[in-house]
Amino acid sequence: MTILRRPSNHPVSSIRPSRLCAVAFPSAVAVFITLAVALPACAQPQGGAKVGEKVPDFTLRDIEDKEHALSAYLAQGKTVVLEWFNPDCPFVKKHHQAHRTMTELEQKYRSKDVVWLALNSGGPGKQGHGLERNRAARKDYAMDYPILLDESGKVGLAYGAKTTPHMYVVTPDGKLAYQGAIDDNASPAKLGGTNYVKKALEAVLAGRAVETAQTKPYGCSVKYAGN
Amino acid sequence: MFRNRGPLAQQRICDVALILRIPPRALALSSVIVGLGFDALAGVRPLELPTLSASAPASASLDPPESLGDPVSPGSTAPAAQLRNHARARLLSETGYLAPGRTNWLALQFEIDPGWHLYWNGRNDSGYPPTLELALPPGWTLGPIEWPAPDRLLSPGDILDHVYSREVALLLPLRVPDGLTVGSTVNLEGRAGWLACKDACIPESAGISLYLPVAASADVVRDPSAVFERFRGRVPSPLAEAGGRVGLTWASERLRIRVPDARGLSFFPAEECSPLAHPIQDTSAEGATLTLRFETEGVGPLRAIGILEVRGTDPTPRWYALEATPDSRAQVLQP
């Protein structure tokens, strides 16, 4: 009954969560059965970056102090994948430790003019924040792509990033082709059968429309500053 | 005594299996194990089962185990692993007995460390709700789960979740067929999994077990720690029980909820609820009116589904299961 509020220093951008479309399907009857949650496409979430529209530009420094401007990549004709990241979140670890979802995809599409950027919008003192922590994680997780630090949370809020991971695929024209979950299994352990980012990249690179342009992201909440 | 639950109480998965601890010489049962919710249990081992045989008798006669144990068993053991978790899970029985041929109420109770929370099974921006796996023989059913009303939690970045802190008990109706031997004992075993969050989120799980003697329904022993009483009161009632106090009026994509004598209202959307255009601003207010504005693009028919919290002069709010569409008769029920 009590509404617990942690005051936020950030202006309320109209970030709205997407419709939940989770449905559980029982697997075959066996000694031990678990249920996977399928996350089919949902209605467009509101606020932040919207599929089909131009995304906000940003310039952020990575953990090696190198600057990255989204517009510069787009001007080079790159498709850009944004991966909201927190090295200590169990859902991020699912895709970087237990499995290598992100790095394998990045590697696969590197030669196809796809740039992959991890963004950490965790505030100071929050889980997974800081140069040292992210440098160590990049090494541990063998990530060949940059981790950008957004500790004020400005970029995360502009995109409406809610969870880690939360994925965005941006085409060279600056428009958002996909946003949401990396795959269709929202548990912290099991991989989904469908990787939405992979499908989006395939479609984008083939000049096709992205079939599932929008899903509800899952994971830990982004640890924005302001508590 | 037990309220008739509306659609909110209908869960996706209802069948849970029960493992009966059977001495090797006893009859074998075929059993089906189904998990509730999605697979959220990291590192869970398959439950060990007795040998399955093709033909299962309709009713099983159990030899009483060597040690009967306390009929009002507190539930799970507390292995060392549980102490590292940020919540302790127990399976409790309201009566301390299993009565054949009727509904027996169990509770999956979580005692949660201060500052940590678990998730409700409605719409949240992050996290996931607890899951329970049990094994049941044919004819036994568990569910639908009754979820108590959560607390609304708004975090920086406009992240809206609905959570449980300190304690929560999920109520589970267990239907047991006729034919169990009175005086025998049943051992319910399974595993609960959940996501515990504070600043960090940690997937946790624990084995749970409950020994229950089978008794005729005559003697009812109430759960002494009043877990059932406390949390049954937090399970939303059907809207009809508001006795006409709650007025619902649709105006195209807006639903106005009015409760004349309320001091404050909140709405917790269920997963199936149509998307809200302003999910933070519109879902909680002081006063007697709440107006939910729904998204109109690409959403299909509008359905307002969730929990309505009504705060008044009482220290405890009231909670109602809300389900309304623009087609349904405006539910301004006459007292």
Over all CA atoms, what is the radius of gyration of chain B?
Answer: 22 Å
Largest sheet of chain B: 5 strands, mixed
Percentage of residues in DSSP E strands of chain B: 35-45%
Oligomeric form: heterodimer
Rg calc of chain A: 17 Å
**Number of DSSP helical runs of chain B:** 2
How much helical structure, as a percent, in the residues of chain A?
Answer: 10-25%
Form type of chain A: globular
Beta-strand content of chain A: 15-25%
The tally of beta strands of chain B, per DSSP, is: 19
Shape of chain B: globular
Please report the number of helical segments of chain A: 6
Low-confidence stretches of chain A: 1-46
Distance between the termini of chain B: 22 Å
Please give the alpha-carbon distance between the first and last residues of chain A.
Answer: 21 Å
Q: Could you report the average pLDDT of chain B, rounded to the nearest whole number?
A: 77
- Name the chain pair whose interface involves the most residues: A-B, 67 and 62 residues
- Could you estimate the helical fraction of the residues of chain B in percent? under 10%
Tally of strands of chain A: 12
Please provide a written account of the structure:
The complex is a heterodimer of chains A (227) and B (335). Chain A is built from six helices and twelve strands. With 227 residues, chain A is α+β, with helices and mostly antiparallel strands. In chain A, the strands form four sheets. In chain A, strands 8-7-6-10-11 form a five-stranded mixed sheet. A two-stranded antiparallel sheet of chain A has the order 2-3. A two-stranded antiparallel sheet of chain A has the order 4-5. With 335 residues, chain B is mainly beta. Chain B contains two helices and 19 strands. Chains A and B meet through β1, β2, β3 and β12 of A and β1, β7, β8 and β11 of B. β1 of chain A pairs parallel with β7 of chain B.
